[in-house]
Amino acid sequence: MLNNKNLYKFLASLIVVIILQNCEEPKSNEDSELKTYRNTLQSQSIGDGSTGSTDDYFYNFDNTYDAKYFKYSKSKFSTSYDKFLSSYPYPPDYLTVKNFPDYLLDISPDSGQFLIRNPIDTLVIASDTITSDIGKIVQDSISLVSSQFKNLESIEWDLEAEPSLQRYRLRNSGWVQEDTLIYYADTFDVKSYWAVVDTPLIDNGFMFVDTSEWQDTSYSFIKDDLISFTNNFEFSRTQMHVDSLIFRTNTDCNDNNQWDQAELGVADYNNDGDMKDTFFENNDNFDYNGDGNLDDVIYEFVDRGNDILDPAETYYDVNENGIYDVGEPYEDRNCNNGWDTAEITDKGNGQYDDIEEYTLKDSDDDSEKHLYKTGSVPNNILVDWTDLDSPELRLSISIGDSVTSRWGIVYQNIIETVSFVDTKRKEVGDIDSLVTLYTNDVVGYIDDSSQQPGDFYVTKTEFLSNRIGDDGLRVDYDYQIFSKDQHINQHLYKSYFLPLGFYWSESQVSQGFWHKTQLEKDIYLYSYNGLFRDGEHVDTAYYDTTEIAVYLMEKSFEVEKAEITVPAARIKAVFNNGLYTCLRDGLTADFEEDCPQVDTTFVDCFKITSTTNMTMMGSGVEYGQKVYTWLAKDHGIVKSDLYIRWTESPYADSFSSGEVDENGQTWSGFSRIELAEINVNKSGNVFRQIYNPAQVVKKEDFKDLPDFNYDPFKISRQSGFHTIDFRESAE
């Protein structure tokens, strides 16, 4: 709290308020030929009794707001967030919103004297001064970060899966990554200046400057040649050996450790044109070999063996009963997809084997054939034949483990350790000089003598594209000007559509609306003594006579208590075992920002429906605009849908489908925004605590202000944060 003495001292630091000539606000025609309308503002009790402060549900512009919305234009208006994520490889476009509550300013009509930059000699550091013979030396640093990887720690056979789906599981470590700071010295000149203000903001009106407070703005000038830094990160990594044994599929189906042609045919017993079939004589009661016995197995081909009495195929006795049971993991040496006992006589595998496939050791050498093919599934169970009389099935492989094949080939280090170098490089600007300008803090101003300083609030929206190739590219921007009195007002250059003949196609629609030359106040949200109330209903109607035509303006405003769900959760993922598990879809990601947004349901909301109908008298053409806006406590606008209606579309049937109202009129969805995230910082400005003003920057000078990104003010058709640009629908 400020006492009288401190308050006087604070106000005394302000330069005298300068009042300049200003244009008179245009008079409203709202009192001309009003139609019958409802107005609940005259009633003390309406609806279900639910109320909420406008500062709580809309915005208290004394605070700083930085919000991000998902934006759906006309072509994707009806697309939900989930459907968008499943249909496109990128999230919806963004609309960002921020306000400017903390500006301070004062200037006189003759602004030139306040713009003069005066050097501060005591703060100059350069090679031609006594302060230093080489300039300012600043110690700085740059961070370099390596790529991420995981170490393979073990391989384990999955016994819990269905037998046909069993395979090795690769057990990995957490993410491995390193970073380093590289320190360096940057040498540059430093020069400082002071001025009352940086750039002129207005030509007339109320203006203020706090002469007791200074703000500094520094401008860095960078040399053309960048400074390059490089670091080599040295790692040891455990990984699957290049042999990739667990991914191999055996093709030596007679298990003789040599490549064979296809098996030879004997006789085509069934006359089907090939000699590849196997017959069981007792199945069809035909004695194929003519021995008088119908219990034989007859092969149309030579089912060759390997001239060795093969031992039983190795298996893992899961239930430890000493015999092979169906479903237990085993080695399939002869490619017949079944477990085989030890041979009493040399025999084949009971099926026709075509020419054996192989993998060449070298693409230019066909003399050394390796009898396997490499697949993508690690389901080749390994057997260690170090002891030929007792081969061992290996269900678990650790770092450094080896196995020996039946034919004596030793495979060392199935999980190998390798060393590698990850080289990272980054370039930074080399500062040539640093110029700092000290100016007085801006208090605020207003260029309308009918208003008081601090009555106006400026917000800025930026439309960012997330489409492939754009990646956050700014497509467009706009400014909005609000004020608060009995209601919440939006200050606009009011716009009206032109008669037919001024435009002939949708690409010319920007020419189809014209704007007045004066900024006028338009009630954006009605309130009752600063409160939103459930059941509020306000209808207005008036004739607006312009130099182009006479327009009948009919407006309706309704409030109801509601709830709404939007993708705006603060927490999107849970971190576990080095990865983020996304709450929306259950998928994992390396970084939380890679996860999609999670839905949040706001139950403390007001849904506001604002409808505007514009009729050109004489032609009878109507243009309608309907906006549904949900306001959540402490979050402002969390969702807003804008619809358009024409009785006669001047550019084809672009608005022929959409929402149909009780009068059978079709409203086409044009623009939708949904809150994704919002940050609110409470203001601690002393001046604002006393007068509750908000910064209003003169529209003509936005282009000169760094905090406004030097973006000039534009005249556009607006409703809240919606910019209604019909060219967007034409693209």
Summarize it.
With 731 residues, this protein is mostly beta strands. It folds into three domains: 18-106 and 434-730, no CATH class; 242-261 and 308-345 and 353-413, no CATH class; 264-302, no CATH class.
Could you characterize what this model shows?
The chain is mostly beta strands and 731 residues long. It has 3 domains: 18-106 and 434-730, no CATH class; 242-261 and 308-345 and 353-413, no CATH class; 264-302, no CATH class. The chain is 5% helix and 41% strand. The chain has 7 helices and 42 strands. Strands 2, 3, 24, 25, 26, 29, 31, 32, 36, 37, 38, 39 and 40 form a 13-stranded antiparallel beta sheet that branches. Strands 4, 5, 8, 9 and 23 form a 5-stranded mixed beta sheet that branches. The chain has a 3-stranded antiparallel beta sheet with strand order 7-6-19, with no helix packed on it. The chain is elongated and about 115 Å long. The model is unreliable at 1-34, 103-112, 129-133, 201-208, 443-454, 650-656 and 685-695 (pLDDT under 50).
Descriptive keywords:
3 domains; disordered N terminus; mainly beta; 731 residues; 13-stranded antiparallel beta sheet; 7 helices
List the helices and strands and how they pair.
Blueprint: H1 4-12, E1 51-53, H2 54-57, E2 64-72, H3 81-87, E3 93-99, H4 112-115, E4 118-119, E5 136-145, E6 149-157, E7 168-176, E8 179-194, E9 206-222, E10 227-240, E11 248-250, E12 278-280, H5 281-284, E13 297-299, E14 359-362, E15 365-370, E16 372-374, E17 382-384, E18 392-394, E19 396-398, E20 403-404, E21 410-411, E22 415-428, E23 431-446, E24 456-465, E25 473-484, E26 488-492, E27 495-497, E28 513-515, E29 520-525, E30 531-533, E31 537-545, E32 550-566, E33 573-576, E34 579-582, E35 588-589, E36 600-616, E37 622-632, E38 636-646, E39 659-660, E40 666-681, H6 686-691, E41 718-719, E42 722-723, H7 727-730
Parallel strand pairs: 8-23
Antiparallel strand pairs: 1-30, 2-3, 2-40, 3-24, 4-8, 5-8, 6-7, 6-19, 9-23, 10-22, 11-16, 12-13, 14-15, 17-18, 20-21, 24-25, 25-26, 26-29, 27-28, 31-32, 32-36, 33-34, 34-35, 36-37, 37-38, 38-40, 39-40, 41-42
